[in-house]
Amino acid sequence: MCSFEEEVNSLYNYIFTQTKSTFYAFNKAYAAHSATTPLEPWTLARRELKPHDVQIEIIYCGVCHSDLHFARNDWGMTVYPIVPGHEIVGRVTAVGTHVKKFKAGDLAGIGCLVDSCQECDNCKEGLEQYCSEGAVFSYNGQERDGSGNTYGGYSKSISAHENFVLHISDKLPLQGVAPLLCAGITTYSPLRHWKVGKGMRVGILGLGGLGHMAVKLAVSMGAEVTMLSHSAWKKADAERLGAHQFVLTTDEAQVKSVTGYFDFILDTVSAEHDYNFYLALLRTNGTMVCVGVPPAPAVIPAFNLIFGRKSFAGSLIGGLPETQEMLDYCAANNIVSDVEVIAMKDINEAYERLLKGDVKYRFVIDMATL
Ligand code: NAP
Ligand code: ZN
Description:
Elements lengths: L3 H15 L1 H6 E6 L8 E6 L7 E10 L2 H7 L16 E8 L11 E4 L2 E3 L5 H4 L11 E2 L19 E5 L4 E2 L6 H4 L5 H11 L7 E5 L3 H12 L3 E6 L5 H7 L3 E4 L3 H5 L5 E6 L7 H5 L2 E9 L12 H4 L4 E4 L5 H14 L5 E5 L3 H9 L6 E5 L4
Parallel strand pairs: 10-11, 10-13, 11-12, 13-14, 14-15, 16-17
Antiparallel strand pairs: 1-2, 3-4, 3-8, 3-17, 4-5, 5-9, 6-7
Helix pairs in contact: 6-7, 6-12
The chain binds NADP nicotinamide-adenine-dinucleotide phosphate and zinc ion.
NADP nicotinamide-adenine-dinucleotide phosphate binds next to helix 3 and helix 7.
């Protein structure tokens, strides 16, 4: 007697051996069906290749804390079933008739975005993430043609318009490149926008997937970098990653030594925390940018900003031109993510470890294990 899953798999294998194009219509994947149930094998239907589409067979997919926030509906906006994953690298297997930028066999990547209007001021400026009609995210998004939800990289393959596909260098280890598609660009973009560089005192708050990329990137840009972490055991790693200083945020004396010290703080923390505590570490005219998205809203009294003319800002991933710039910058400067490669079946355990901060410093799924 076959289980349902075995039946689906045998149907899938039959189709795969019949025609390659149908193979891509049906896709093996891992999905969450509710906020309280684990991710499990699922089969999804991908759209037919459009004239501008690039089809990628996924080799590695990074595991972002946003995947976990979405799978567990932390932000109250999840549509189930959900297939997370927006740190996607792989090889092009087919291209639509009008595609000019890619050919079969190329290495390619897809990050958090798969579409946008491409006509509004933000899109024209290469800020597709702020598309005034709403960017289409790689998962938990709505296709612009009304054909349904988008599904992410915990799957065999994915297709997107060539304008949303990135070129990947073959100079760097591919598993270390995957996290650049979200953790890399989410930290690179604000560091560039606020002109982080030589002579600036920069604090990186939270040493996780985003935080470890932020340390590497800010150091490479010439800033003086301090790791602000609530985990004492991460001190040696912070130094190995290039941080010039480590401050344990639970140690009063250490925090006092950097009060009023930083020009710029990048906050990558995923859990609820007091922004005011860290705003006090900024010097006059300093800026704190949050990229971490804790589920609960925060309260910031105006006094904490007006004394010292401080700025509190946010930043969302990065647009396509800047994402390509970041990938090229990382290839030129030999920067990749520190990863722990896992098998697809271990994703639920990986989520539990992510919540405990037990990852050095990004899980990446080997999609051959799907
Ligand atoms: P992660 O790997 O889990 O890292 C989060 C880090 O936050 C932890 O390593 C830990 O660092 C710190 N932290 C966790 N709990 C804490 C607590 N209770 N108090 C203080 N610090 C705590 O997560 P990630 O993948 O880097 O993602 C971080 C956040 O960014 C998530 O909320 C994610 O959704 C968001 N995100 C935003 C964007 C965007 O475009 N803005 C893009 C991607 C991700 P220490 O142990 O060093 O303190
Ligand atoms: Zn992400």
